[in-house]
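COMPLEX REQUEST
Ligand: L6ULR443
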Amino acid sequence: MTEKLTLRDNAAVRWAALLLLALAMFCSYIFMDILSPIKDLMQSERGWDSLAFGTMQGSETFLNVFVFFLIFAGIILDKMGVRFTALLSGGVMLIGAVIKWYAVAEGFKGSGLEAWFTNNLNYIPGFDELGISPFYQGMPASAKLAAVGFMIFGCGVEMAGITVSRGIVKWFKGREIALAMGSEMALARLGVATCMIFSPFFAKLGGQVDVSRSVAFGVVLLMIALIMFIVYFFMDKKLDAQTGEAEEKDEPFKIKDIGKILSSGGFWLVALLCVLYYSAIFPFQKYAVNMLQCNLSFTPPAEGSFWAGNTVTIIQYCIMLVVAATAFAFNFTSKKSLKTLLLTISVIGLVVFCYMGYMRQSAETIFAVFPLLAVGITPILGKVVDNKGKAASMLMFGSILLIVCHLTFAFILPLFKDSAIGGVLIAYVTILILGASFSLVPASLWPSVPKLVDQKVIGSAYALIFWIQNIGLWLFPLLIGKVLDNTNPQVVNDLKNHVITPEQAAVSYNYTWPLVMLACLGVAALIIGIILKRVDKVKGLGLELPNVQQ
Ligand SMILES: C[C@H](NC(=O)[C@@H](N)CCCCN)C(=O)O
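STATUS: Structure written out below.
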């Protein structure tokens, strides 16, 4: 008897479903960091100092970590299915984003709501005592309301993240699942790069600064994300109609099934590796530009010159798109000559991108190469995992690269502070290697989860991993800041006593110890990776096996 073909057996339809999910995540990742590149403007336009800015940014993880929203999101996903949760997460993201937009809009200034926020939310019983409150006495009203919006958005975006991962498992299990997840993550990284470039662009458009324009740009993208999820809803419904809704209805999810996840040793190892590895990446990303400013001497191009203008930003972004597109197309051709051509274009694009970054003499443009390499090679590595396996080995190798990079930033880069080109060259090579590590680990980690837990609890499994990961993402930016202050007492005192200006202080920090701390996270991740490989061998978890069934 021949098996009835379904939508997912058609490669074009399967990849179209992925495109909808990945585009929604692309838009979400843009909003996630929308204010990060305009910290200076938030200070000058809305009076947010570093504490207000950092507290608002940290609010993203608050409901997920401390009110366990992510755990509920996982249960909702396993009970209600992918299409319902996709719509719900798209709606929640949009509501949070609109609140954040209103908080920074001109209309909020002088409103009754502003007065209310100024006088309230100064003390949150329980959370204040533990030092985890997302508000504090004296926090600007706009930052408080933006924090409320951002914590709602944070619930939506993490819910969307686990939904998209489960959706990819649904459409790609037994097929090119790692390539699909790698491609989705590549688009997400492109989203981060897009945000870094276009958020300041919109804020300063037309020569007049308006920070709410950047957030409005993000809100429009989240409307597009919701549309993507609505279109996906109908595809998913059709697939379920064809498969008899096998995955989500035949064996309904029960809360006690979560116990099965927690009793899996492999699951705990992957969750631990995830929190250790990502804590050394995402929190570092928040400080990396400043770390480069402290370790390199820049000579900015003359005001009004080509290198100082906006045109070069647009050109760099176009090059980024070309590199991303050629690297992606590389996965879908088997013709050797075409592969060589695509690879050559990618490499030339990357070199030109780096050269332009060097000529602009700014830490932001040098660090911009970090997501670019991940955009290019995550899908390629995903394809390797699909066809050759070796996920556990790749997790170990990615951790080794992470350790090497953080130690290079800590001990080698400072030696080249006075060399005009040497420091930039070392920074580029190290950032590129870190980008390779940031491709190796995600490309092998996320597609391994379906091998460790039952299909019907996969949503809860991703949610639990994200929850554990979010604890690290909340904790480590704080720890980096604290270690930085404690190991730079001179800078802190000079700033307090007005011996140096905030601008001088900002580029005077020694980053050695925060970087050593991040390298230690890499060492811990490597040890977990070694244990995982051993457990995989003994218990036959299949992590080293290819995903594609022959
Ligand atoms: C797929 C994975 N996503 C995550 O880890 C999310 N929890 C997003 C965290 C973003 C924090 N700003 C990834 O992006 O590799």
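REMARKS: The chain has 25 helices and no strands. The domain at 8-252 is CATH 1.20.1250.20 (Growth Hormone; Chain: A;).
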